[in-house]
Design a protein that fits this description.
Layout: E1 2-6, H1 11-22, E2 26-31, E3 46-49, H2 55-65, E4 69-72, H3 79-84, H4 86-106, E5 111-117, H5 119-122, H6 141-160, E6 164-169, E7 171-173, H7 185-194, E8 201-202, E9 208-209, E10 211-213, H8 214-226, E11 232-236, E12 242-243, H9 244-253, E13 263-264, H10 279-285, H11 293-308
Parallel strand pairs: 1-2, 1-4, 2-3, 4-5, 5-6, 6-11, 7-10, 8-13
Antiparallel strand pairs: 9-12
Helix pairs in contact: 1-8, 2-4, 4-6, 7-9, 7-11
InterPro entries: Epimerase_deHydtase (IPR001509), NAD(P)-bd_dom_sf (IPR036291)
Protein name: NAD-dependent epimerase/dehydratase family protein
Domain NAD-dependent epimerase/dehydratase: 3-237
């Protein structure tokens, strides 16, 4: 099938693109390369350098390319940026995304597969691992925008029949993650430590996250396409909570515990806990995370070490 991937030069999108190409799909990538990299793009994919906030260009691409499936990864991904500049976040994560959904409906796209968020949508909850039917109380404009998209997708399915899957990820980590933003603590810590810089843990470090390895996230995205008639919201995580302190220790293990555990001030808008149940996607699509945390950190360390030495 002809598949259109927004943000296909980025961390997750580029690796989903690789898998789709391996499965003989025709892949077209739109990316403004603000956080993705052209070297991530598979040689067999068609890259269109454009911004999804340019509605006219996006509609022109739909008209000319006539895609059958949409994978939407392009986003403003920094939770703290969304807190400091909610209007900028909404422009990309709500308005540009809504435009893509509307165009998908207008052009009779067969399925819209969306990269959403688990932790940032549910907020701090005592019900962990958290299921998809839990009440949603996002604590950041980023989480609010992702939740709004889920609601718009459901609206377009119920009223117009546009099939969709929204994948609510835990904290995704692994090779190709960009270490130069505020998002992606694993990549940020590894990059600093490989450059002999001391990482700083925000707050007391007891905040917990569900860290899910990139290969498992790619697998979930492929299953969302292959289980074509499945529609709705699915968590993608490991159902395991890991504190930032324990994350630091696991990474530091690869450096023979060279670095001290140093804490800084807590960040505004950062929630305390996040852990997702993957029971629904396991039951309906046979998804199960296969990479345990220690193994995933080791593989990520080896990749960053290799790329850092180039």
């Amino acid at each position: 099938m002809k598949i259109f991937i927004t943000g296909g030069a980025g961390f997750i999108g580029s690796q989903v693109a690789n898998m789709l190409i391996a499965k003989k799909h025709d892949v077209i990538i739109i990316d403004n390369l603000s956080s993705g990299f052209e070297y991530n793009v598979n040689n067999e994919a068609k890259l269109i350098k454009a911004d999804i906030t340019d509605f006219g260009i996006v509609e022109k691409i739909f008209t000319e390319e006539k895609p059958e499936i949409i994978y939407h990864f392009a986003a403003q991904i920094d939770v703290r940026k969304s807190v400091s500049d909610p209007l900028f976040d909404a422009k990309t994560n709500i308005m540009a995304t809504l435009n893509l959904i509307k165009l998908s409906n207008d052009f009779k796209i067969k399925k819209f597969i969306f990269s959403s968020t688990g932790g940032a949508i549910y907020g701090d909850t005592n019900d962990r691992p958290t299921k998809e039917n839990h009440s949603e109380w996002p604590l950041s404009p980023y989480g609010i925008a992702k939740l709004a998209t889920d609601k718009f997708l459901n609206y377009y399915f119920e009223i117009f029949g546009l099939k969709y899957v929204s994948l609510r990820y835990g904290n995704v980590y692994g090779p190709r993650q960009n270490p130069y933003g505020e998002a992606g603590v694993v990549a940020i810590f590894l990059n600093k430590m490989l450059n002999n810089e001391q990482p700083i843990i925000n707050g007391d470090g007891k905040q917990t996250r569900d860290y899910v390895y990139i290969e498992d996230v790619v697998k979930a995205n492929i299953l969302a396409l292959e289980n074509f008639d499945k529609v709705g919201i699915y968590n993608v995580g490991t159902s395991l909570e890991i504190s930032v302190n324990d994350l630091f220790k696991e990474i530091n293990k690869n450096f023979n515990y060279k670095f001290k555990e140093i804490h800084g001030s807590a960040k505004l808008g950062e929630q305390k806990t996040s852990c997702l149940s993957y029971e629904k996607i396991e039951k309906e699509m046979s998804f199960k995370p296969e990479t345990n945390f220690s193994e995933g950190i080791k593989k990520t360390y080896e990749w960053f070490k290799k790329t850092n030495s180039k």
